[in-house]
Structure formats: C-alpha cells, structure tokens
Design brief:
The chain is an alpha/beta fold. The protein is built from 3 helices and 3 strands. The mean pLDDT is 87. This is Dehydrogenase/reductase SDR family member 11.
C-alpha cells in the first residue's frame, strides 16, 4: 500500500466493526484518515491511541441516515480540511 502512503481516505462507520478495522489498517499503512461515525467518543479514543503512526486521524461526527449531517460532513471536509471532494 505504499502508493497510498500520505493520501487521505474517508472511512464511514470508523468507530466500530469493519470501519474501525479498516481505519486502523489504513493508519498503520501511513494513510491519513477522515473517520466519521455516530459515536465520536470511540473515534477520539482511537485518535489518541494512533499517535504512534505517521498518519493522522481526523474524527467527524456523522449519522449517515441524516441528510443534513452528510452535507455537513462534506462541507467540513472542504472548508476546514481544505480538501476537494471528487465524485
């Protein structure tokens, strides 16, 4: 996964289960992760535990069932993280 080192990935459901496992794996591979989940506390715990990696984890609370939270997620990524969203 060296070609992804230093890139940024958006992982939904990053606080538990498959999303959590994917987040940990990406961080270990040097991929920066924007993790979103309903349970922000779990993401913040993972964020504090992942300081040994060169990659960063940015935690954003988002319930993917709520359209306004999805729109807010993308707005925060574009505004506060200065990243463009490509579809």
């Amino acid at each position: 996964m060296d070609r992804w080192r230093g890139k940024t990935a958006l992982v939904t459901g990053a606080s538990a289960g498959i999303g959590y496992t994917i987040t940990v794996g990406l961080l270990e591979a040097g991929v920066n992760v924007i993790g979103c989940a309903r349970n922000i506390a779990s993401l913040e715990t993972l964020q504090s535990e992942s300081t040994a990696n060169s990659a960063t984890l940015t935690s954003i609370k988002c319930d993917l069932v709520k359209e306004e939270e999805i729109l807010s997620l993308f707005k925060e990524i574009e505004t506060n993280l200065a990243m463009s969203i490509f579809w």
